[in-house]
Specification:
alpha+beta; F-box_dom; F-box-like_dom_sf; PP2-like; F-box domain-containing protein
Length: 300
């Protein structure tokens, strides 16, 4: 067993070929067929694997085709995508190109834009682009009247702030985003929470004081894109005490160099009854291969 461990690390526990004897280009061909997390694990085996796992050819194959544009948006920060796209060509000429592994790592971080109200990142495991749009970037009917809505702090939100509804007759939350998504199929969700979450004595709890009206009529979700795609769905809001991603619909991106404009809405405008006790955190866009996950149910 000791000899096997030594061979796996590139040492010579006996006669014969060990992993350290493999040519680096052969190792790179193997790594091309692995996902990013597996590549990082394989880099621990030997110097040869570590060298191959740092190669530009390996990591460029894991990056989206329009990674240069995404990197420009990340570098511009709150300056916005249009400013970043205009400066991208000049930046490429002036600066030395980054190693592709570093580019991948940078894009996996939280990259905010549009005044810090939106952010995107790469899924570390699959390399797909994910996005989160804060409630502060949404158009919410009645948001300026504190009798109905308030922005409250919440450490479970990526933006540390959520919009909380006490009570209203006309419920309408709309939004829009324009972004150069890489080619692929994406799903869009509204992330909401029935009840007001907070902490008491270090424990996560929620208040059900204002919850009412969501079991009478379903909420309608709508989505449309600039290239003519449409989706809609309906759902009753149930299951208080946990963050839920309500699926609005899916859309397909065929050209990563052309911005896709997406408009979306969450509506319940039946004025025969009031509704309240709802937190709206964000709108989430992620590749379809990522399955929907619910937050851990540890509320009381």
């Amino acid at each position: 067993m000791g000899a096997a461990a030594s061979s796996a690390r590139g040492g010579r526990g006996g006669e014969g070929t060990v992993l350290g004897d493999l040519p680096e280009n052969c190792v790179a061909e193997v790594l091309l067929r692995l996902d990013p997390l597996e590549i990082c694990r394989m880099a621990r085996l030997s110097r040869t694997f570590r060298g191959a796992a740092s190669g530009d050819g390996v990591w460029e194959s894991k990056l989206p085709r329009n990674y240069a544009r995404l990197l420009a948006v990340a570098a511009a920060g709150d300056g916005g995508e249009r400013q970043a796209a205009a400066a991208a060509a000049a930046a490429e000429l002036e600066a030395e190109p980054l190693p592709k592994k570093e580019v991948y790592a940078r894009l996996c971080r939280r990259n905010r834009f549009d005044g810090g109200k939106k952010e995107f990142w790469l899924d570390k495991g699959g390399g797909g682009v994910c996005m989160s749009i804060s409630s502060m970037a949404l158009s919410i009917t009645g948001i300026d009247d504190r009798r109905y809505w308030n922005f409250i702090p919440n450490d479970e939100s990526r933006f540390r702030t959520v919009a909380y509804l006490s009570q209203i007759w006309w419920f309408e939350v709309r939004g829009e985003v324009e972004f150069c998504f890489p080619e692929g199929t994406y799903s869009l969700f509204y992330r909401v929470h029935l009840g007001r979450p907070f902490k008491r004595l270090g424990r996560r709890v929620y208040s059900s004081e204002h919850i009412h009206g969501w079991d009478i009529k379903p909420v309608r979700f709508q989505m449309s894109t600039s290239d003519g795609q449409h989706a809609q769905s309906k759902s009753y809001l149930t299951d208080p005490g946990g963050w839920i991603n309500h699926h609005v619909g899916d859309f397909v991106v065929k050209d990563s160099n052309k911005p896709t404009n997406i408009r979306f809405a969450m509506i319940q405008i039946d004025c025969t009854h009031t509704k309240g006790g709802l937190c709206v955190d964000s709108v989430v866009v992620k590749p379809q291969y990522l399955t929907q996950k619910k937050a851990p149910r540890c509320y009381v």
